[in-house]
Amino acid sequence: MKRYLRQLPAVHELQKDLRFEQLKTVNNVTTARLTMFLKREVESLRAELLIGQQELEGVALDFSTRLFKSTEAHLKQWQKNRLARVINGTGTVLHTNLGRSRLSKAAVAHVAEAAASYSNLEYRLSEGQRGSRHDIMEELLIEATGAEAAMVVNNNAAAVFLILSALAKEREVIVSRGQLVEIGGSFRVSSIMEESGAHLVEVGTTNKTHLADYEKAIREETAIIMKVHTSNFKVIGFTETVATPQLVELTNQNQPLIFYEDLGSGALYDYKKHGIGDEPLVQQVIESGVDLVSFSGDKLLGGPQAGLIAGKKKWIDYLKKHQLARVLRVDKMTLAALEETLKSYLAGPDNINELPTVRDIIRKAEDISLQAQAFISELQSSSTKYISELQESTSQIGGGTMPGVEIPTYIAAVRHSDLSAEQLSHRLRQATPAIVTRIQEQQVCVDFRTIDSSEMVDLLAGFVDCE
Questions:
Q1: How is 240-271 classified by DSSP, letter by letter?
Q2: What is the pLDDT, as a whole number, of residue 462?
Q3: Are the C-beta atoms of residues 357 and 102 closer than 8 Å to each other?
Q4: Collapsing DSSP states into helix, strand and coil, what is residue 200?
Q5: How confident is the model at residue 54, as a pLDDT?
Q6: Which residues does residue 416 pair with via DSSP β-bridges, in sequence order?
Q7: Where in the sequence is the domain holding 435, given as residue range(s)?
Q8: How many Å apart are CA 141 and CA 146, to the nearest integer?
Q9: pTM of the predicted model as reported, rounded to 2 decimal places
């Protein structure tokens, strides 16, 4: 053991090696960073020798070469983007783990422009005076939702927190037990309410809540009646909920109570006309007379991560002035992406396909079939290692949206002659760009609902490189 350990080169000796300078130049790193990586590799090799040195008996040792090779490999890994591009072959349109909505080309261009330039983020060009970033998006949100006023925070959980903290701190908020949802990552409506300082008052049961349950719970300490859209699960069978118009009327009869509806996903486009889900439209909820409504920007809207709040002007103005509004505000790039997303809706139905999320959700199965067939043909022509076939399947919306809704689709079901489905799936995830698929019946399945035509070349190359 001591003999092998004595053969380990010192870091200062490795720094004098020509390969040290070559690695610096090729990888464009500083002396300090390369030295740090080499130190790690020396320590790692020393640990290996201490554990399993017997395996080295009779083997010609060149520790320097080994150390430089392992250092180079780790440098290349370190230089890769941590936030990396992924081809989504799962068919789940709003895949939370893969970043949810893809932005439109117009939104991407506007984000790039905002990032590379100065902007009028908080400056009124017409007056030459300081402005508010709330002004940038309000007009478009008012036009898109029909609300009196609107504002943007950094996600819908933030919107819920701001509303409850600003309007119901140390007071009561009435919520149906069947709507105390967990919105992902163990974040629960009840927990957010507790952190906001509001006091939760549960009414009804898990499956049934009546108008009378709300009426009995109203007291002098009540600030808000809150309705939470259960967008990430569905209760079926013996159920009953109170409709939004009834809760609006009840609130109006008990002024100054506020009625707030958390829509969660939030849709500006009517997916129901394509037979997809039963998601309520934000515009219709606003028309019913709610005081406030909040929803996400990166779910059914198809924009960036954001929390959108719309409703009565007096409440929106109050929220804008609250100290939390600054804590939860969004940056210029989010506003740029959201602006172009809203413009696509306001431009009319002919422009709705500019939004990848909307386009992918309503995409026809026949078009997906043609794309899948083209891939299968190309793969079979490019490699003899694969057996592929076209199969009918279903896609999901994802992102905690439209639970239970499955959309007809077509997949390429792929088998490899030498690799199991798990092995092939793992290799595809290591490709550049990474390819994420799903496994069914020991086949790697690619759902083309979520694959853009521009990604087809990289998709094929990823499979061919896995041979």
A1: B---HHHHHHHHHTTTT-EEEEEEET-BSS-G
A2: 97
A3: yes
A4: strand
A5: 46
A6: 386
A7: 86-96+361-465
A8: 8
A9: 0.89
